[in-house]
Amino acid sequence: MGRVFIKQGKWIGYVIYTVLLTTGLLYYRFPADKIEAYLVSEAAGTDPPMVLSLKEVRPGFPPGIHLIDAGISLRAAPQQDLLRASSISITPAAWSFLSGTPRYYFKAHAYTGDMEGHVDLERYATDAPFATSLRLKGIHIGDHPYLAPLLGRNVSGVLEGAIHFAGQQNRLIDGAGQGTIVITDGSVKLLQPVLGLDTLDFDRLSMEMAMKDRKLSLNRV
């Protein structure tokens, strides 16, 4: 019996050694520079053109990639991040490789909250139509450095919601989408004091949003 355990122990040790060696080689040989260059190039080819900045690209497990300190901005205003995430994880769905309709799961940590969802492509091509679903949780909008200048006033609150969008990479502006967003514990700086109040505080604000024909509409619910 003791010999059996010793023999099994050797095999277990060999398997662990093989896994560790393979993992080490994966990290050592991981083509981070090539992946980063590819992602930056793809962002530049969107309409409107985008600028993607990355501090680091790492391999992930399950198989995928981790983007560290990732920022995306319009080429026309590269210093104003539309989104800045401390980390973004992207993992392909294993079954999608067999179906011919790729699906990628993603999760990002930004502004003290999380964004997660998936992207479905109609085929394996960068210009293929796609549809994405995104869930927001615990996003502190007051931490976004360019939201106040964009709105012309200081705003704060915690954002949650769900958004669906469909379009093509080379024609993002022509895409369509809808969603529901909720802001809690919010505050809006008034342009002019009203009854001695400089800010308007609210407990909860819920809105439905729709994007179509290059127009974004918001309706309070």
In brief:
This protein is an alpha+beta fold and 221 residues long. It is 23% helix and 52% strand.
Care to describe what's here?
With 221 residues, the chain is α+β, with helices and mostly antiparallel strands. The protein folds into two domains: 1-83, no CATH class; 111-220. It contains four helices and eleven strands. It has helices at residues 2-29, 32-44, 96-99, 147-151; strands at residues 50-53, 56-60, 64-74, 81-92, 103-110, 113-121, 130-140, 155-167, 176-194, 197-212, 215-220. Strands 1, 2, 3, 4, 5, 6, 7, 8, 9, 10 and 11 form an eleven-stranded antiparallel sheet that branches. Strand 8 (155-167) and strand 9 (176-194) form a beta hairpin. The radius of gyration is 22 Å and the shape is globular.
Write the layout of secondary structure elements.
Blueprint: H1 2-29, H2 32-44, E1 50-53, E2 56-60, E3 64-74, E4 81-92, H3 96-99, E5 103-110, E6 113-121, E7 130-140, H4 147-151, E8 155-167, E9 176-194, E10 197-212, E11 215-220
From the structure above, extract its key features.
alpha+beta; 2 domains; 11 strands; 23% helix; disordered N terminus
Distance linking N and C termini? 70 Å
Q: Any idea what the radius of gyration is? A: 22 Å
Q: What class, by secondary structure content?
A: alpha+beta
Helix content: 10-25%
Average pLDDT, rounded to a whole number, is: 81
Number of helices: 4
Low-confidence stretches: 1-10, 17-22
Total number of strands: 11
The domain tally reads 2
* Strand and helix order: HHEEEEHEEEHEEEE
